[in-house]
Structure formats: C-alpha cells, structure tokens
Amino acid sequence: MASYGLYTLLTATGTATGTELTTGNNDQRTFQAVCTGSGSVTATVTLEGSLDKTNWVTIATLSLSGTAPQTSSYEHTSAWTYIRARTSGVTGTSATVNVYVALNRKREERISDDGASFVDAANFGVVADGVTDNTASLQAAVDVMLLSPNSGRRLCLPSGTILVSGTITIPTSQGWVIEGASRGSTKIIQQTSNTPVFKLTGNLTNNFRFSDIYFEYASAQSSSNTNAIFILFDSGTDTTIYNFVIEHCSFNKCFRAIATAESGSTRLAVWGVTIRECDFFGDMSGAGVWFKPSTSIGQPIFNLDRLYFRCDNATEPSIYITVGQNVTLRNVEFNLGNYDSKQQLWLESCEAVTLIGCRSEDPYFTTSGTKVLWNFPASQVTAIGSQITAGSGVINTAGSVTFLQAATGGYLQIVGLHCNGTNSNSGALIPYQAGTLGVVTGYVAGGGWLADPRTSLGGTSAPRLNSYKAGDGVHTRGDADVTLTIADLKYQYFNTTLTANRTVNLPTTNLVDGYEFVIQRTGLGAFTLTINDGSATNQDYTIASATKGFVHYRCIGSSGWIITAAGTLS
Questions:
Q1: SS3 string of 250-302?
Q2: Helix/strand/coil for 12
C-alpha cells in the first residue's frame, strides 16, 4: 500500500490508462492533472476508483483546454482501495499529460509532529540538473501543495540547480513552506531577464516561509529590469500580506531580491516580517529589501536579523522601508558600494526603529556635495553599537558625509558609536545629525571623523550629550587663563598654585543646549579664579583667593549659561 506522500499516476502523450495505486481506505486524496506542450493543448483526464482492481468507477473527470501549460485539480476522500487515471482527447504540439496524487491522512488522523503535508517537488517532474526548464513542473508542485487541506503544508525542493524561465504564481493562501535542502545545495536560476521568480498575488496571504534556497539570475540584471525580483509581493491592491519568514537564503544578479511591486497606485503593505540569516551579493543592481506601500496605512513589526549586503553595484539603498512601526535591525552588515547618488540604508517615516550591532564597511564617495549614508527621514531611531569603518583607512569623499541622519523631523538617540576612517579629500566626516537628537553616549572617533560633533551641530540640532567618547575626560589646567570652546572637555581642573588672578572664559558660540562644564580649583595661592560666562545672564563666578572650590555650569542654548551648583571644598 502506498504511504502518505506524492505519486505520479500517469504520464501520457495520447489515450492511455495508468497503473493502479493501492491506497488506505481513509486517505485524503488531492489529484492534479498538468498538460504541457506549446501553444494550444487539450486533454481529458478520468479519475477512477476500485475495490477489486476489476470494477472501476469514475471519481471525477478533469478537462484541460487552452495555452500550455494547463492544470486542473480535484480533492476527494473515499473508501476506494485502488485508484488510477486515464487520458483521452490529447491534442497539441508536444502535448504531454501528467497526473499526480497527494495522499494524506484525514485531519483527525494525521500524526506528523509539525502537522506538515510534505510535497516532494521531484514527484512533479522538478529536475535539479541545471538543464531542464522546471517552470511548469514547479508551478504544478506549488499548486498541489496549496491544495492540501493541511495548514502546515511544505514543498521540498531537491538539491542541485533548478532552472526556470517564467514566474511561479502563488495566490491567496496561508500556512505553507517552500524550502530547499540548503542554500548551498538548492539553487534556483531564472533564465529569463526582467521576470520575477515567485510572485505572491493574493491579498491576505499569511503565515508562510521561504528557506534554504540560493536565488540567481542567469545574467546580471541592470537597474532598468525592474521586474527582476526573486520574491515579489503584488496583489494589485493596496491591502496586505503578513506574518511571513524568509530565512537562510542567498540572492544574486537581480534588480531587487525581496520587494513589493512599484507599478501603479495600489502598492500593498506588509507586516509581521522576519528576514534572517540571508546574504545579498554584489551583482545585485537594486535593493535587497524594499517595502514601500502606496498608502500610509502602516507596516508594523519588522525583524531583520543577521543579514549581509555586498553593495558593489547597487543603485539603491540595500534596505528601503517606509511607514514601518517597530522596526528592528540586528547584526546587519553593509560592505563596499559607491554612495554618491544614493544612501546605504533608508527608513522613512518609521516609528520605534532600533538598530543593534549594525555596521558599514568600506563605503566610498567620489563627488562633492552633502552625502548621507544611513538616512532616517521623519523616523524615530535608537542606534545601539553602530559602526562605520574603512579597511584601507580611507573614505574617499570630496563632500561632507553624515553617517547617521534623522532629518525632517526625525529623532535619533545613540548608545555606542564607533567611526573610523580618514577622508582622503576635503569634506567633513560627521557621525550624526537629526531634527531632534537625544542622548548620545559612548561616541568614539578615529581617523578623519569629527572628534566632537558639537562643533558643527549648534543650536537645536545638537545633542544633549552624556559622553562623546570613552569617558568625558578631565582637562588638567596649569597656572594660566583659559578660553573654552564647546569642544572642550566637561571637567576643567586647576590643581597648581596660582601666581596671579586667573580667568576662565566660557564659550559664546556654537552653544549646545544641555551641555555642561565643571570648573574645579584645588591649587591654592593668594589669587582668585574667576569664571566669566560671557553672556547677559550675568552668571560670572569667582573662587576666592587661597580657596578650594568648584562651580557647575549648564548651557541653555543661545541664551548662554546658568550656574546649577557651586561651593567650597575642604
């Protein structure tokens, strides 16, 4: 008796009767007939059942007619011990009829640990030999997988190279998996340029997964081939596809890898998105991840984890997401790429964005002008442990470059930022800017990056800085007058004997709201130490002759300084 799984009942080019298949009396049967060929084809398939292999009863008749390939399906539960298929009326150039059946236990009898109905693509003629065109057979396997009544259905692809020349269409559906043996052994190559591989066309498609597949086009696709997308979401409406996972996959030679359709005014939204442990290689011409709905309905919950982007030839940001909520990027790396006319990362009008352990390595710029690498317009961003580095030590830019920018009403908070690399031209290397900057803690600069960005971020765009490098440091002063700038360290220490009355002048330009200075005197001497605030607030303060003391100043923006604490020391 046949076990549960997929079987071929018949392959025929004309009138034929297939060999009977022995089944269990309570099996759930899903039949599919596929007629391939070229041009117009026709065929009639009769499905039959028997108890004794002698007396056969018609279960169903499937009619196929139209441009090849043609498919028809039938789902049935019966007590027949034996089943078979017959063909008749087969016409058309190279017309071939394949009849398949999937055997599953009824829902109440299934015992699979994960509830999955396993569909072996090889049973539908998918041949991973790098020669055979598998478009029709792969579509047939997908169709049967989707017809299964089991919500845990899975299509298993064989190891090897699977060639396709068209698009595999997936309509509205839920609860399925398409998986390879591993991304190192299962490769899908699209032979037709500017043609998607998988196209999800159904509104409310949900709870599905792609995994363990290496995707590639036969030839590298230019940015003008805007339909060269491996996994395309295109329902033709401005509704949604949700709760899905793409994992352990690699992508190369496409325009975009995973994307919503750009054409028309009805671009759908996605939500509940998990993309993890995927590689996007350097022969891509566009984005690896592109989700841009046509409406502002929102796209909640993005989890992008352990992704690698090689950006040599990209003409777009590697990740482009608009109107997302609760967007998390964790351990994402971007490598190489020219960014004269694009950004590396673009998250626009996104709420509650968190970046954890993300880095950019060896980006470069060759033209003048103001450039931004990671751009978050109108977004609310917390960046934790971010890094930009140049392996050669050189960032070739003729214009100013900002690493993290949340302009146009955006909010940016930074915890741990490491910038390294030397500008080989004349432009400034600026670590961060935003419409509103929150607390910046632990900024470490190397090479040509601004050691203290406060000098270029005056006014309302400047951060309330807890620490701009490892520790905020103490500057020990000698027996001399001092004029401070906003770039000076917070703690100013006079520990030597004064030989004359000395003055400390606080900064009067590039003032940063919330920034602080603490001036402390422990060196004695029969002279005073006077701190001049240089503004109309009249917050001057004098530590008396031969006295140990301190004063704590806080900046209130362009209005100057106020004293928040002062006194003597024992």
A1: EEECCCEEEEECCCCCCCCEEEEEEEEEEEECCCCCCCCEEECCCCCCCEEEE
A2: strand
* Separation CA 535–CA 525 (nearest Å): 28
Q: Which residues are CB-contacts of 465 (< 8 A; sequence separation ≥ 6)? A: 439, 440, 454, 512, 514, 515
Q: Report d(CA 22, CA 190) in Å as an integer.
A: 38
Paired tokens of 419: 């910038």
Tokens linked to 61: 């008749």
**What letters, b where the CB count within 10 A reaches 16 and e where it falls short, cover 189-219?**
bbebbebbbbbbbbeebbbbbbbbbbbbbee
- Identify the weakest region by mean pLDDT among 16-30, 69-83, 373-387, 388-402: 16-30
Other beta carbons less than 10 A from residue 546's beta carbon: 12
- Answer whether 31's CB lies under 8 Å from 67's CB: no
pLDDT tens digits for range 358-395: 999 999 888 888 899 999 999 999 999 999 998 777 78
For 108, list phi and psi in degrees, rounded to 5: -75, -10
Q: Half-sphere exposure (CA, 13 Å, Cβ side) for 514?
A: 15
Q: Do residues 63 and 72 lie in contact, with contact meaning Cβ atoms separated by under 8 Å?
A: yes
Q: Which amino acid is at 534?
A: G
Give Cα separations from 561 to 17, 100, 163, 446, 513 (angstroms). 95, 82, 70, 31, 9
For residue 47, list its beta bridge partners.
Answer: 60, 85
Q: Tokens 């000076």 label which residue?
A: 488
pLDDT value of position 110 = 32
Question: What DSSP string runs through 432-445?
Answer: EEEEEEEEEEEEEE
Please tell me the least confidently modeled range out of 180-184, 413-417, 418-422, 473-477.
473-477
Whether 61 and 33 have beta carbons less than 8 Å apart is answered as no
| C-alpha distances out from residue 513 to 190, 224, 453, 518, Å | 56, 48, 14, 16
- Among 146, 218, 211, smallest CA distance to 185 is for 211
| Helix boundaries (H) for 293-332 | none
Assigned token pair, 277: 């442990």
Say which amino acid occupies 275: I
In terms of DSSP bridges, do strands 422-423 and 394-395 run parallel, antiparallel, or are they unpaired?
A: parallel
- Residue pair 512/555 in contact by the 8 Å Cβ criterion: yes
* Most trustworthy range by pLDDT among 142-151, 243-252, 439-448, 475-484: 243-252
Tokens 């690698």 belong to which residue? 308
Residue 426 has a CB neighbour count (10 Å cut-off) of 10
Measured distance CA(32)–CA(64) in Å, rounded: 11
What is d(CA 477, CA 429) in angstroms, rounded to the nearest whole number?
30
What b-and-e string marks burial along 54-92, b requiring 16 or more CB atoms within 10 Å of the CB? eebeebeebebeeebbbbbbbebeeebbbbbbbbeebeb
